[in-house]
Structures
1.
Amino acid sequence: MAKELKDLTKRSEDYSKWYNELVVKADLAEQSPVRGCMVIKPYGYAIWEKMQQTLDGMFKATGVQNAYFPLLIPKSFLCREAEHVEGFAKECAVVTHYRLKNAEDGSGVIVDPEAKLEEEFVIRPTSETIIWSTYKNWIQSYRDLPLLINQWANVMRWEMRTRMFLRTSEFLWQEGHCAHETAEESEKRTVEMINVYADFAEKYMAMPVIKGVKSANERFAGAVNTYTIEAMMQDGKALQSGTSHNLGQNFAKAFDVTFINKENKPEYVWANSWGVSTRLMGALIMTHSDDNGLVLPPKLAPLQVVIVPIYKSQDQKDAISKAVHPIVEGLRKKGISVKYDDADNRRPGFKFADYELKGVPVRLALGARDLENGTIELMRRDTLEKETLPLDGIVERVERELESIQDSLFNRALKLREENTFKVDSYDDFKKRIEDGGFFLVHWDGTTETEEKIKEDTKATIRCIPLDAEEEEGVCMVTGKPSKRRVIVARSY
Amino acid sequence: MAKELKDLTKRSEDYSKWYNELVVKADLAEQSPVRGCMVIKPYGYAIWEKMQQTLDGMFKATGVQNAYFPLLIPKSFLCREAEHVEGFAKECAVVTHYRLKNAEDGSGVIVDPEAKLEEEFVIRPTSETIIWSTYKNWIQSYRDLPLLINQWANVMRWEMRTRMFLRTSEFLWQEGHCAHETAEESEKRTVEMINVYADFAEKYMAMPVIKGVKSANERFAGAVNTYTIEAMMQDGKALQSGTSHNLGQNFAKAFDVTFINKENKPEYVWANSWGVSTRLMGALIMTHSDDNGLVLPPKLAPLQVVIVPIYKSQDQKDAISKAVHPIVEGLRKKGISVKYDDADNRRPGFKFADYELKGVPVRLALGARDLENGTIELMRRDTLEKETLPLDGIVERVERELESIQDSLFNRALKLREENTFKVDSYDDFKKRIEDGGFFLVHWDGTTETEEKIKEDTKATIRCIPLDAEEEEGVCMVTGKPSKRRVIVARSY
């Protein structure tokens, strides 16, 4: 472990390499033999489980229920909504057969040509189509609305360039699919869910986000409007962390889902969908971690506190263990997860490096000298600062430190974002400064042409029109045409 | 709802039809447009979530961690273990292409022939192959063992005849995959997990099970030994509810997974795998439910108590609501889920029928007369018996009733099984009596030929050799050859 840690590339050397190495070295995930798909290892999965549980509770608190829809989507369903198929057909895994058989020449197993499907299926890249074909049978009257349903599922998009957690062919996510009586109600729910995501990102992931609206170009395929939360990573790039789409009546029309409204007239249902994925793991890693490894906000850390004994004899170890016991008990009683690592086969130095790599928020170390003095050493993973503290009251102190770490991580990330967010009015200036990363608040004329020019010139895209953007008369930095508010432009993951 | 309930086929008329109707009418699941795949509706999914959470906690208590492996398996992986491919190749969904495109004749979207995969993938029917190909990199030394990993996932087997929850092409399950140092340790874990399943079935599902070993014929493809839990449904048929497989070194050999053992010598790793699926939903429904609808054990009921007010005026309703409030509070404080259904748009009779159909274990009804008398009506879903009770102490009484329902359901199911389990020694006798269902304890000569003859003659199979079978000298009921213990033969789902 100590060796592995030493080998970790520094962020300043190669941020991208640092990320890829960290994912593997911290035991979060690894490449699988299946192109573009990863294996999520137990430690990584434990973090994802914490995210899932928290989000699931937040969804349910707003009245959402979970359900499960089929993995496979008939090809014809995917094609019903014109923009939707345009957006997803190019990256589908296609199931064409339902059986293998022994090759006649004895060379092994082949796809049985007799088992060709009449209609092919695609593995869901997202489930609007299969879900709206189902909703048709569930919705007759306004009394059946709203329908507030979420699904936790795997999805697949045949990505050409993949990176673990950030962009993989298969990924895990949740997708909410709501049906409403009115356009207003659906819009309200669309915004409510982007607010849930923002709350989760800020309060649990300790990751500040900017809520905004996507430009037409960056909208979900089939949506009328897409809300997003955008976070800044340590290298100044943006990461889209969650989206909520107002789908208008597009899918209701494509799947002929109507209801009898309160005026006793048939009307197409109003829809929205919203999702976050294992991509959040990438966001979490890149927001907080450092050259020593992972840094985790206490609220999502599978293990919040580790206690390492430092001893030279069994007698010393016994005495330390006896002193540690009530600390472990006290922390557990407060709902804090803690491990007392008294394994003999690894030296304290190795353990320290390992838990640093894994991002355990608080480390306590207790030696024979400490025991004499009635003290204990506490290290915070976020600052790597050590402090010798009285044993007495250590449980309460750890509890306060965990809260403090959660807050500090958020504030540190917010400070980074603020220091790297710039108002720019000259396109030449922008083109120079974008090289160093950061969020750029610029005036834009609102056209797709200009957006595409910016992308072509600089690889940067319009991340969003912030919801809290102030009205401000200005001119587009590219074309000089009038603009009413600034948008955020950045390079992104 | 009342109408739907009246329409429910009686078990005595057509048990199979009753089941299919109940799954739909109780809002548990429905057929999807994808052949053999179902949509699990919110109420059904809420029950599955309770099962998942409970099982997940039980697994973790034995040291198991969760992880996630890819959905797709390269065709060549599936073929590495000879028996395994034999068992699964015939029922695979095969991915052959990774893109759709517009047809040149404008007729719609077609599979892009240019996007043909070099090697096809199958959608996992089970994950031994992809997991053992991964474990090869995770295991070097005995220090890396045991590896105790579980995954919650969807899997797909292209079944020809499907029934909701019992046998569907796609289903949800968990699959545990453990790697051990010794054959003994792996065998111990295999048995430990079948015991976990049996505990879950009996303590949470209130479903008595028989633990046993499968005959060679019924073993998992690639296993050395398969343990099973078998439950009796109300029609006397068996339902295999969970299996745990000792895989010996078969997969380690197929994927070349060796470790340096304590004697410093390379050795193949010892493996087991174990799983339960959404099939348990079918088992739960068929064990307890009746002609009025679903009957759920309180420990798995999404809603344990419903309170229905009976009123003629707003004043009466207000007075009732005031009296109900502390009951709701009291129940919630005890961790009991409760709903006060004071909706005005459905009459009490409709509500009663609906909650009966949904299997809510305890129903409380409170009217104006009750309020005067300081009483409340309690109905148990399992017996449909009503009792008028003092309002005072009702919270504690409900708590006791829930425990009592949980126990009664188990005892009722156990009694049914005991009354329908028969020792039979004559094959003619067996052939007659198998028509009426039940478990038959018979002597069998241990050969696959005899097992297949029984199946051909009677559609019954050897469900298992019970773990607690007593040694008893006897002769095979079919061939007259010697046998040392009785096995259980039954028709099954």
2.
Amino acid sequence: MKLYTYSKKSDDTDKMNHNFLKSLIEPADTKIFMLIMDGLGGLPKESGGKTELETAATPHLDALAEQSALGLSSPAGAGIAVGSGPGHLALFGFDPFEYEIGRGALEALGVDFDLEPNDVAARGNFCTVDANGILTDRRAGRLPTEDSAKLCELLSTIQIEGVRFFVMPVKEHRFAFVIRGTDLGDYLSDTDPQKVGVAPDRVKALDEKSKETAKLVNEFIDKARLLLADKSTANMIMLRGFASLPRMPQFADIYGLKAAAIAVNGMYRGVSRLVGMEVLPVDGITIADEFTTLEKYWQDYDFFYLHIKKTDTYGESGDFDAKVKVIEEVDSFIPRVMALNPDVVIVGGDHSSPAVLKSHSWHPVPTLLYSKFVRADGVREFGERACGRGSLGVFSAQEIMPLALANAGRLAKYNA
Amino acid sequence: MKLYTYSKKSDDTDKMNHNFLKSLIEPADTKIFMLIMDGLGGLPKESGGKTELETAATPHLDALAEQSALGLSSPAGAGIAVGSGPGHLALFGFDPFEYEIGRGALEALGVDFDLEPNDVAARGNFCTVDANGILTDRRAGRLPTEDSAKLCELLSTIQIEGVRFFVMPVKEHRFAFVIRGTDLGDYLSDTDPQKVGVAPDRVKALDEKSKETAKLVNEFIDKARLLLADKSTANMIMLRGFASLPRMPQFADIYGLKAAAIAVNGMYRGVSRLVGMEVLPVDGITIADEFTTLEKYWQDYDFFYLHIKKTDTYGESGDFDAKVKVIEEVDSFIPRVMALNPDVVIVGGDHSSPAVLKSHSWHPVPTLLYSKFVRADGVREFGERACGRGSLGVFSAQEIMPLALANAGRLAKYNA
């Protein structure tokens, strides 16, 4: 309801917002359940048709919608398609521009790596150098992923005392690199000179804390070069975008919530851990396994975030019908959720991933907010157009947490 | 759609907004009427039912709605329930976080005291001390309000040259304290040590301007202790949250409006006076008396704010049907308002007070904006759900004044 300002703020507005919310928090014996279907929002196959969510037979979500306030949540403002990192930060109540997850950290999370707070991650490229170490191909001819996976295994054998290294294939010449240790710094320069005909740069520390880390990473690169020297596919690596996870305000501190995350992919476990959720062990990888986990731990937490990956997977692969089926499967678990008698239920997504676009998109995301104290729109339908007419309107995803807290009886009045 | 920035901003954003509006103001011979039903927004008794406003038979408001733009106004952002002070500041176009009304001033306004700009107010507690002045009960056993009212009368007899004191009972051990004089300062420390077993603190001046005031207040406390010495109910007082009213931009200056307030409660008279409205004398205390006052002064002002208290009173006491009846009574005066031929009419509230919650709530408030130049939604209904589908959407209450000014032909084009 205010024009979105995209850019990073110069002041500490967001931190102050959380201090403000924190000042209103009061204890309550209530439970909030946030169900996130990744890339939930969609588009019809042809103009005038139905989206994936509108096509899906979702009797339980439709019934819940009737007792809920509906709207379209925008993770980062008009026209902006986001990655899962910023999309989730917004859902969790954080300004995704204020708290940016660095590229290296995103790459590691993106390959399901359980990145820890002290890890330093980077994006890696396999490349080709000549006998003098001069770059001849920055992408090693975009070698096939299966070849690069073998090289990653080889690099994973590198050992240096006091630290551990993780090297994971991403796609073609790209890999994710992580160094784990104590007191590491992530303010490190890239080694990719962005052109051929020169040697890759050395990693330079850009602050005092990162000096020892720079030495260790350069040592790793030297050992990598020796290990790769005789390889025809790629004989050198470059690293860029060094980043640790950002320090984030914690759910327990700012919201007074003991929070748990149920997710089977590393990216989502990583982002939830970042904001102070406990990541629950899921016995299996199916959607059913995730809901069983919810039931198992229901008594132990105030807030649950449950993540469904496959809606996005099929959105990105362009499989409209498969995305519809996943939504229908999720719908079938809603009665089990409601049997737990949650005080607040949010059903939404971190961004849209319309199958027709085969990609994340900027479209705001259908969102349902249920509680006994919500002003229900009374529309028995959960879908993009129903949500577009809902009383929440097009709203910032960052408003979901304050609304959930209010509906859970966890926010005192301001200045009364 | 951006998350409302809750906390006090470090920059002067709000003042700049008002300087900007001021730069566009042009004179016009038009009149704006703002009708505020306190705590107007409600909730249905059961899911799917009607709210107080939806239940009320409001033929005149419904007819006006048909020619109006509708929406749900949010005083302070998603999830935040506000007191009447910040709720009204937002309606009057001010950022309620930028201009916070201090706790002492709120307490005095809350007991209908006509707080003046130079007054310094505080929250008071009756307490109990032993023979050595050591605190034994910080709340004097929460003595009954009727006992504390008698003690307030007694303290009101205290006289010190050059200033006046006002002591008014609030509830149980709580009272409101006001010192009136010239050149007083309000940057004063609390006397409540927040624990028993020690003596109450003395008031300390925290800036130069407050030094003389601290002396006067300490003198008052000494006299109070002597007066209370033989009382069995409470034999000492403590004061905290010293505050004058904040200095606010004035309606005449920033909006070019000669503005008047019609309100029978001190809180609302105080907040209107704060922003430069003239508070009109109301001959009586009924709703009819207020509308009669509007008619009497109609020729003399550009802007009228009329406040209805009882919608909130019954919301807070949980009396759904009585709140419905108040709304119906207000509706009966709409023809008299329209007979005055106002150019702009706003009907809204400062916050929601659903009877089912018996409290202020965070739900955005049904709002109607009528003028000849508004884009009417054409919905013949004034209620929460009708407003939820209205063209104003969920919008910041701070947008009401700029919209009213524009519709009243009082804003020039920007950069044209």
